[in-house]
């Protein structure tokens, strides 16, 4: 076929080629439309699956939270059952023993009046020291934060006179159960109280001014408008003695600790009581206690004000009062009163405590270890003290 014949055929073939091209374009459009529909369908299914997966995840999380709450409730019930069993065991042990009955806490008014008169006769007299202790605090050498346990207020301590390593914990300012840990290690490592023994006291305590001394617990009980010092034997769990504190119309001894009316403290000389009355509402009073009979041997009016005081302790016969502010800042020993007159107030060191969390709820001096066990906003802290002779300060 010659070229001229091809030229003659082109006008005849052009419509056919255009028709095929149109069909091909329509086919491509149909395929693209189908592909778009499938993509849209896949997108809808993917969104639905994502929603279902999210709902399922939320449902599983809710079930896990409910299971965790049930587990906590079961754990609380188990601990409560353990407490009840422990209390029952102590009651059974108590019934099986032949301990003497707790003495009556009601004190003869005549005896109390005689005790008050004797103490007032010796009030503000010069104190005759029982030991040759002549040290005073120079500074806080170190601070160690052990843990956070219990409520914002409380106290923890060792036996101030014995060699026991037991840790006694008083949680709160009004309670009747003391936690006892066998050693510092158990108290530090375990957050729960399951490692601690529990001592149920016959009467609830008030404040944070209690003390463990020579195998006995000396704690404060409020009965009406009066306050009693209860001497409790930790070995046989009985009340050995009790005494109404011979001070009329008492007020909180520390301005920043309104629940503490009497602070029982121990030093190298023995037992002391720090208190305040409405008779001299601005300043604190100090009394020397007989650990055996709870009699007050001597009393002093101190120049240390109650305002902004958060705690106090006695070292070698010298009262050290720790002050702060109502917006807690850095605590400091700002008033020192030496009953023997050896240390003049102007010669005492101004001791600062490191900045911590809040305000001290209790400060317990250990004469055996020369350190202070402090309770600060629920944190248990040990302050190690740097000591100096009084004449060297």
TrEMBL record:
InterPro entries: Olfac-like_dom (IPR003112), Olfactomedin-like_domain (IPR050605). Residues 132-389 form the Olfactomedin-like domain. Keywords: Coiled coil, Developmental protein, Disulfide bond, Glycoprotein, Secreted, Signal. One of its GO terms (cellular component) is extracellular space. Its main location: secreted. Residues 57-98 form a coiled coil. It comes from the Eukaryota. It is found in: Secreted. Residues 1-19 form the signal peptide. Belongs to the OLFML3 family. This is OLFL3 protein. It comes from Phainopepla nitens (Phainopepla).
């Amino acid at each position: 076929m010659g070229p001229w014949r091809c030229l003659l055929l082109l006008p005849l073939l052009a419509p056919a080629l255009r028709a095929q091209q149109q069909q091909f374009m329509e086919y491509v459009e149909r395929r693209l439309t189908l592909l778009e529909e499938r993509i849209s369908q896949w997108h809808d299914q993917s969104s639905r699956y994502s929603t279902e997966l999210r709902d399922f995840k939320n449902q599983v999380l809710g079930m896990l939270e409910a299971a965790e709450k049930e587990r906590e409730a079961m754990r609380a019930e188990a601990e409560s059952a353990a407490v009840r069993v422990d209390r029952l065991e102590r009651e059974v042990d108590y019934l099986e023993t032949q301990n003497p009955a707790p003495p009556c806490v009601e004190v003869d008014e005549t005896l109390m009046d005689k005790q008050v008169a004797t103490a007032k006769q010796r009030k503000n007299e010069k104190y005759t020291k029982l030991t040759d202790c002549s040290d005073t605090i120079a500074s806080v050498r170190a601070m160690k934060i052990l843990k956070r346990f219990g409520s914002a207020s409380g106290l923890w301590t060792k036996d101030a006179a014995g060699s026991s390593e037991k840790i006694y914990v008083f949680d709160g300012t009004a309670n009747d159960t003391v936690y006892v840990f066998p050693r510092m290690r158990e108290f530090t490592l375990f957050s729960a109280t399951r490692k601690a023994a529990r001592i149920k006291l016959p009467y609830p305590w008030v404040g944070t001014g209690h003390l463990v001394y020579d195998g006995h617990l000396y704690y404060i009980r409020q009965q009406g408008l009066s306050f009693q010092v209860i001497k409790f034997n930790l070995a046989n769990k009985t009340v050995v003695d009790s005494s109404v504190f011979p001070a009329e119309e008492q007020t909180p001894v520390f301005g920043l600790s309104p629940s503490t009316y009497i602070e029982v403290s121990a030093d190298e000389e023995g037992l002391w009581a720090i208190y305040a009355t409405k008779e001299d509402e601005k300043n604190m009073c100090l009394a020397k206690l007989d650990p055996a009979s709870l009699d007050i041997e001597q009393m002093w009016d101190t120049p240390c004000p109650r305002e902004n005081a958060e705690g106090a302790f006695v070292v070698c016969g010298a009262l050290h009062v720790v002050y702060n502010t109502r917006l807690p800042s850095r605590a400091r020993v700002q008033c020192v009163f030496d009953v023997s007159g050896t240390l003049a107030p102007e010669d005492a060191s101004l001791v600062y405590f490191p900045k911590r969390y809040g305000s001290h709820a209790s400060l317990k001096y250990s004469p055996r270890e020369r350190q202070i066990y402090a309770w600060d906003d629920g944190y248990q802290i040990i302050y190690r003290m740097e000591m100096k002779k009084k004449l060297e300060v």
